[in-house]
Every structure is written in structure tokens, then in C-alpha cells.
Amino acid sequence: MTDSNSHVSRRAYLKGVGVGGAAGMSSLSGCTAFGGGGSSDTITIAGTVPLTGSFSSIGQDMERGYELGVQRMNENLDQEVELVLADDESDADRLRNQLNQAVSNNDVDMLWGSFSSLLVTAGSAFAENQGIPFLGVAFAYMQPHLDRGYEWTFAPFPKSRDVARSTAGLLELIPEEERPSTIGIWEPNSGWGQEQADYWEEELSGDYDIALREKFSIGSQDFSTLISQSKSAGVEALLSNPTPGGGITAMKQMQSNDFAPKLLKFVRGADPSAWWSALGQNGAFATMCPGWVPGLTGNGNSTLDESYRSEYDIGDDQLLPVQVGTSYNLTQVAEQTLANAESTEPDAVREVLRSREFNTVIGDFSFENNGLPREGQLTAPVGQWWEGGQHTVYPDVDGDAAIDFKYPLTPWGER
């Protein structure tokens, strides 16, 4: 974050800035450390972000999206909004401890989630037990919504079925005579890994040959067998949802083994800016579905762009990180909910979440009672790494940062 005095003064409305938190807490600029009590004229929101640990490459971007959203909420809502945010260290147990401390020390009206199915489901379970409305993004996994009878959890984020549908849409951008015919799916050995692979296979098998579907272990550092199997199967379009670290490792090994499919989609793996930092031009052409991508228009996208550039002083040639927009979208849902709720009582907040259509930087949508976005309402935008930035390539939009889909991948020897 910037260290300018103007940055600090713009955050002055938030309580407790600079207050030292309990042991292990991060005191975040623009947020309070855990501690102190809420008041009747203050809306208190608590959450965590992964500023350290295995998901740390995404944590600051998530924090900044939340901060910009809270700044907007304080400008638009009648009550002051206080954000209580801490580092969950990319660990589910740590996240639960942080949220428990937040709720113990504050009159919390709403909870916001962290990053990944692992951390968001942990936060959701806590919220369900406490009976506090919970919003979570970076969480495409649908099955918990269906299995656990969620009453308080809402996900303003494209889910596995939306990701599969947008993959089909991306493929249809390619002229039919040039379109890949063989699909390979690398399936992480996780619940979401299986779910996403199932949706991809169901969505694509009628028009394409699913030539390969093989599992790998999360945390694996050796993708050579999958690469060899993909080459033997003639895979032209490779789909997977690895962790960010796993995706980068796989990409490096694909280069060393001279495997360059015509299309590569690494959902979540290619999301963070660390992708380009680690791979440079070798990371070009990769696509992802991070929830929000520069190039989308309407529903506050221009305000988001202007606010971020003003707050963090980035150049005109730099694009916003995708997680900033994804998190900012969550704050828009929170603002529209609180603005239309009769009170901040949990039942009143939940009633608005279940009944209202929301308009955010990722689109217009409403929720099913189980917290899923209603089927078919959200288009999962596809981003593509090109010249150091992530640009919208699907759907076809006219934002300044949108580009035509770059296809096929350039072979390694020609880069």
C-alpha cells in the first residue's frame, strides 16, 4: 500500500488505525485490529485475508478490494461501517480463531470470506454456527451449498457450472475449422477438483473428445506423468484448477517437456499477479476464471478503476489485479443489502440477500436460498494473460482492457 499522508487521512473514518492487536494479529491500514466493541450506530463487518502463507500472493489484492468497498460504503450508507480484518495466514484453523476473536470482541453484523474453497468453507461453517450473514468469493465449489443446508452463506461469485459454461463460450470464439477437438482435464484430488472436472466433461463432451481426465495430488511438484499422458493423448485444450503455486510449477514443467497445448485454462492457478512475476512471457496466452477481469464495463467498473488508480497511484498502462475487482464486487453486495435491510438484525439482512437482485462489477444476479447465484444469471468472465496483464476475452465486451482472444498458444520454441 502507499504510505502517503493522504492515504492515511482518507481512511480516518475507520476506527482503531494503528492500534496494536492481539498476538499474531496484523494491523491493516484502513482496518481495525481485532479488539474493542461495536456500537449501535456502527455496522461492524469482520473477515480475514491470506496476507501470509500459501495464498499470500492474492491476499493484498483482496484486502485492497475490501478497503475500497468500505470507503464507498461509508460515503453512501447512513451508518458508519467498521471493517475488522486480520491475516488468516492461509490456514483454516487460524481463520476460525481469528473470526472467533472478532465475534467475541465486537458486535459483528456480517462476515466476509477469505480465498479458496479451503478457507471460505471454514469461514462459512463458523458463520453458520454463529447465525451471522456471510459473503464469500474466490469459492467456485458448489457442493457445500447443496450438502450443508446453508442458511447464512452467500457466494457472489461464479460457480463450477458457470466456469464450465464460459469455457464452452470461449471455445466457440474460435472459428470452427480452427477449434481444438481434444480436451484434457487435469483433476486435483479434492472435492472441487472432481466437481469442476465433472461440469467440464458434462458441458463439453457432446462437442469435443475428452481425450484425457487424470487426477493429481494438491501440492504435487511433479507433473511429468500428466504431461506425458497429455502429449500421448493429443490434448489440444488443457483445463485444470490447480493452486497458484501448482499452476506455476506445471507451466514450467510443460515448457521443459515441450508441451504447448493450443489452449490452456488454469482456473485459480493463473489468477494471481505472481503468475506473470514467475513466468513472464512464458505465462502468456494462459486463461483463467477469477470472477472479475479488467475490461468488464458497467455496474461500477469505472468507479472501481478510478478509485484504485487514485488510491494506489498506478500507471495508466497498468491493469487492476483481478482479485481487487472480485472482492470489490462482494462489498457492493454488502452495501446494497445493508441499504435495503430494515435493520442489521441477522434475519433482516438474510431476507434481503435472499430476495434482491444485485448489480455489481461482475454482473446482475440474485441468490438461491442455499446461497448459490441463481443458475444461468452469472457469466464467468474469462481472462487471458497478455503483455503482463489479465484482459477480458470472454464474454465479448468493449472495455478498454478487453482484447480479442489470443489463439493458439505459440509453441515454446517460437517464443
Automatic annotation (TrEMBL):
<dbReference type="InterPro" id="IPR006311">
    <property type="entry name" value="TAT_signal"/>
</dbReference>
<keyword id="KW-0732">Signal</keyword>
<dbReference type="InterPro" id="IPR051010">
    <property type="entry name" value="BCAA_transport"/>
</dbReference>
<protein>
    <submittedName>
        <fullName>ABC transporter substrate-binding protein</fullName>
    </submittedName>
</protein>
<dbReference type="InterPro" id="IPR028082">
    <property type="entry name" value="Peripla_BP_I"/>
</dbReference>
<feature type="domain" description="Leucine-binding protein">
    <location>
        <begin position="42"/>
        <end position="371"/>
    </location>
</feature>
<dbReference type="Pfam" id="PF13458">
    <property type="entry name" value="Peripla_BP_6"/>
</dbReference>
<dbReference type="InterPro" id="IPR028081">
    <property type="entry name" value="Leu-bd"/>
</dbReference>
